[in-house]
Amino acid sequence: MVSNLQARDAATVLHPYSNLATLPSQGSLILERGEGVFVYDVDGKPYIEGMAGLWCNGLGHGREELVEAAAEQMRRLPFAHLFTGKSHDPAIALAEKLKELAPMKAAKVFFCNSGSEANDTQVKLVWYVNNALGRPQKKKIISRIKAYHGVTVASASLTGLPNNHIDFDLPLPQVRHAGCPHHYRFAAPGETEEDFATRLAAELDALIEAEGPETVAAFIAEPIMGAGGVIVPPATYFEKIQPVLEKHDVMLIADEVICGFGRLGEWFGSTALGMKPDTVSVAKQLSSSYLPIAGVIIPDWIDEALTSQSAKIGTFGHGYTYSGHPVAAAVALKTLEIYEREDILGHVRRITPHFQARLKALGEHPLIGEARGMGLIGAVEIVADKASKRLFDPKTGMGTKIVGLAQEEGLIVRAIGDGIAVCPPMVITEAEIDALFDRLGRALDRAEEWATGAGARAAA
Ligand code: PMP
C-alpha cells in the first residue's frame, strides 16, 4: 500500500535512475531528516545511511557548522559569479585550498556544480587545449568499461555502462572504452592479478597504437570504480598503465568524485592507488554534499595553453552560472576545515580494518561471489552460483530485492553493477559499522531464503 505522499511523489516527480514503470506501485522511500549516519523517513523510522547519500555525505547529517557557514555567506553575499573578470573570496580561498591539497602540482581550479559537469569540462578542456597547442587531431579520450563519469552528453559517453548509452545515441564518436580492471570477472583462468594488470596495459597500448597515438589525447579513470561495482584494480594496475600513457603523450584524468577527500584515508584516491594524474575532477565529499559544488584542478601546462589561446581569441567560452557559487564554496571550505580539525582521514584509516574485515566476512555468504573494497567503500557481488560465478537472471530482480530487504532491516544500500555497494559517511563508528553489516547480513539471509523458495521462481 503506497501512502498519500508516495502517490503524490509518483504522480509528480520524475525520478532519476529509477524504474519508472514499477515506482508508482512500490512507492519511494521518503526521508524527512537526518542525524549523524542515520536518516529518518516520514514515519520516523531510522535507517543507517550505508551509502552516505550517493557516496557523498562524508560528515553525516546535522553538522551545525556547515549550516552556519552557509547562513553567514548567504547574509553577506548570497550570489556572485566568476564570469567576465568577477570573483569573490570564498571561490579564491577554496581554489587555494584545493591547489594545496591536490595530488599533483596544481595551477588553478575551474568550478562546476556536479561531477558530470566537472568531467564534461575535462572533455572540453582536452579539446580546447589541443586546439590551442596546434594539434587538433589529438582529441580521442579513452575511458573504461564499467567506469562511471556522469550523465551529461560528454560524461555519459565516458561512462562505460550500457544503460548510459543505449537509448541515448551515445557515446560520442571521440570516446573509446578500454578493459575493466576487475580481476574476479575479467581475468583469464589462472591469471594472477599481476599478469592481469600487465595484460590490460598491453591491451591499452595496442588500442592507442590502433587508433593512432596522434589522435588519442587522454585517459580517464576513477581510482576505484564506484557505480560500476566498486572495482578495486590490481595493486600494480596504474603503475603499469601510466608508462603506456606517457609513451604516447596521453594525459591522465583522475575522476576523484567518489574517492576524493578521505574515502580511502588519503585526500585523494590517486595517492592511495599510485596514480599520477595531470588533471583531477572533484565533487561530492568536497562539501560533504550539503550544497552542490565540484571542480577541475589543472596543472601549469594546461593553464598556459588556455591563457595563450585566450590571448589569440579573446575569451575562454565555458562556465556555469553557479561556477564557484559563494555559499557552496563557503560550505566546502568549512567541510575541508572540519576534515582537518577532526582528523577525519586519520579516523578513516583507523576504522578501515574493521570495516573491511566485516565486509570481507560476507564473502562466506552463499549469495556472495566476491566481497571487495578499500578504505570505507566496498561491495559484495551477488551470484546464483559461487563456483561458476553465475549471476542471477536479471528478471529475478535480486539486487532490488536485497536493497528492499535491507531497507526493512533499517539500512540503506545500493544495487550497482552486479552487487550491493556500501559507502557510509566517513564519521561512522565501529559500533555503527557492526550494526550496518549485521543488518546487511540479515537482508542477505532473507534474500537467500527468498531465492531458494517460491519468491524468486515466481518473479522469474
Ligand atoms: N564521477 C563519478 C566517479 C561519480 O561517482 C559520479 C556520480 N556518482 C559522477 C562522476 C557524476 O557526478 P554527479 O552525479 O554529481 O553529476
From TrEMBL:
<dbReference type="InterPro" id="IPR015424">
    <property type="entry name" value="PyrdxlP-dep_Trfase"/>
</dbReference>
<protein>
    <submittedName>
        <fullName>Aspartate aminotransferase family protein</fullName>
    </submittedName>
</protein>
<keyword id="KW-0808">Transferase</keyword>
<keyword id="KW-0032">Aminotransferase</keyword>
<dbReference type="InterPro" id="IPR015422">
    <property type="entry name" value="PyrdxlP-dep_Trfase_small"/>
</dbReference>
<dbReference type="InterPro" id="IPR015421">
    <property type="entry name" value="PyrdxlP-dep_Trfase_major"/>
</dbReference>
<keyword id="KW-0663">Pyridoxal phosphate</keyword>
<dbReference type="Pfam" id="PF00202">
    <property type="entry name" value="Aminotran_3"/>
</dbReference>
<dbReference type="GO" id="GO:0009102">
    <property type="term" value="P:biotin biosynthetic process"/>
</dbReference>
<dbReference type="GO" id="GO:0030170">
    <property type="term" value="F:pyridoxal phosphate binding"/>
</dbReference>
<dbReference type="GO" id="GO:0004015">
    <property type="term" value="F:adenosylmethionine-8-amino-7-oxononanoate transaminase activity"/>
</dbReference>
<dbReference type="GO" id="GO:0009448">
    <property type="term" value="P:gamma-aminobutyric acid metabolic process"/>
</dbReference>
<comment type="similarity">
    <text>Belongs to the class-III pyridoxal-phosphate-dependent aminotransferase family.</text>
</comment>
<dbReference type="InterPro" id="IPR005814">
    <property type="entry name" value="Aminotrans_3"/>
</dbReference>
